[in-house]
Design brief:
Oligomer: single chain
Number of strands: 8
CATH topology: Rossmann fold
Number of domains: 1
Shape: globular
Distance between the termini: 21 Å
Largest sheet: 8 strands, mixed
Helix content: 25-40%
CATH architecture: 3-Layer(aba) Sandwich
Radius of gyration: 15 Å
Strand content: 15-25%
């Protein structure tokens, strides 16, 4: 069975603009009993995401951690990189893959994850990467959906 993959295309062109849409998406995904495996492309980006999730709002934060913070299995949002050994953390987690971390995709699709979310910015490089990846995964038989950020939220396009 192929893993459903949802592409989320943000309007901003920088990693910071992508990071700014993450908290609301993660809050929505965490509703109920969902837990998240957030895959950042680099350790530097992993650290920036860690800081973002602590400080994005004056009134709340998203509970999260990195594998080296201790007790990673207890974290509702676990932030990893493709180089981390994250396979043991996939159980009962929704993988959220950020543009640039595509090297983790084969492990994710082979893991039996119930679905995968892929987020990418409006930069030319990210859009080209997203298009190529979308076609490749669709050709492999994965059920695909594409959502584009609008002024009022997310609009499903395909």
């Amino acid at each position: 069975m192929s893993t459903p993959i949802a592409f989320y295309h943000t309007v901003g062109e920088t990693p910071a603009s992508l990071d700014s849409v993450l908290p609301p998406l993660l809050e929505k995904a965490l509703k109920g009993t969902n837990r998240i495996l957030l895959i950042a492309p680099t350790p530097a980006r992993q650290q920036r995401l860690d800081e973002t999730l602590w400080s994005y709002s004056e009134t709340s934060f998203l509970p999260h951690g990195k594998p080296d913070d201790g007790k990673p299995e207890l974290q509702p949002v676990l932030i990893v990189t493709p180089e981390d050994d994250f396979a043991s953390y996939l159980t009962d987690r929704i993988p959220v893959l950020l543009a640039g971390a595509e090297s983790a995709l084969p492990s994710l699709t082979a893991s039996g994850a119930s679905r995968i979310l892929y987020l990418f910015s409006a930069s030319t490089a990210d859009v080209e990467r997203g298009r190529t990846l979308f076609k490749q995964l669709k050709g492999q038989g994965h059920p695909m959906s594409y959502h584009q950020q609008t002024a009022t939220g997310w609009e499903k396009k395909a």
